[in-house]
Amino acid sequence: MKTSTLSFAGAAMAALCLIGCSSDQQQTNLAPKHNGDPLETAYPRQSGTVQSGTYRGQPITYRAINGKAVYQGDIILSTSDLSDADHATEGTGRTLKSLRWTGKIVYYTIDPTLPYQDRVTAAIAHWEANTAIRFVQRTTQYSYVTFKPGGGCSSYVGRLGGQQFITLGDWCTTGNTIHEIGHTVGLYHEHSRADRDNSVTILTQNIQPGYESDFQTYVQQNKDGFDQPGGFDFNSVMMYHSWSFSVNGQPTITKKDGSTFTGQRDALSPLDIATVQAMYP
Ligand SMILES: [Zn+2]
């Protein structure tokens, strides 16, 4: 780790780097973390308050932290996601397609105060090398994503319309950035697949109270979605690790044989790429 990283981020961030990663390492496989943090969290070490709300017609719990509705650790729900007005139009289907980026182009800006901007350029280069999505610096376009600094890694799922954000804490790596861009183009977490119960066991007794709904499938959440053919992908860059949101150090997700797994944050997997291709033909 560069000393400049430490001096910039301070002791608290150095502690976070022990469990996460450093931007200059651009780590390969992260060691499994038994403290219960998933690989991406919007507000590390901030639990906020557990709130109940309606998301796409389904009651869910989420965390209210710093005025944001945080779901599944690193997904920020927009106010319209949680409003009754949105629910009222739910029948017309705010389909996933409506949340896709027109012309496969993601317009973006980078907040000039964001440290280690090479994380963003490297993640964008990875996406462009492996998918049809293109990233163009925003000039006057209405819808765009801004990469901005913050305490953790987070994103909205899909294109909201207007400005939206990918937040990157200093400890978020290129791999974490690839993951967050995945949310921005419309990918859910892999364990949200409708057919996931064929491949994983959710150990509810080990989940931190209030986080149970983070382990629901998109069907259970009443979201529109699809399962890419090819089966459950433990190698997905959108996959949690086995100890995500653990309350007691025991796994919250295992394979059907009870074995544990780590989430990789090296690259989009072949199935990730196929999923994006299906969404953006
Ligand atoms: Zn995520």
Structure description:
By secondary structure, the chain is α/β, with parallel strands linked by helices. It has helices spanning 3-19, 79-82, 84-88, 118-130, 174-185, 270-279; strands at residues 49-55, 58-65, 68-71, 75-77, 105-110, 134-137, 144-149, 154-155, 163-168, 200-202, 253-255. It has six helices and eleven strands. It is globular, with a radius of gyration of 18 Å. The structure holds zinc ion. Zinc ion binds next to helix 5. Zinc ion is lined by residues 40, 74, 179, 183, 189.
Q: How many strand elements?
A: 11
What is the helix fraction of residues, given as a range? 10-25%
Bound molecules: zinc ion
**Arrangement of strands in the largest sheet:** 6-5-7-9-8
Order of helices and strands: HEEEEHHEHEEEEHEEH
Secondary-structure-derived class: alpha/beta
List the uncertain runs.
1-34, 83-95
List keywords for this structure.
281 residues, binds zinc ion, alpha/beta, disordered N terminus, 11 strands, five-stranded mixed β-sheet, 6 helices, four-stranded antiparallel β-sheet
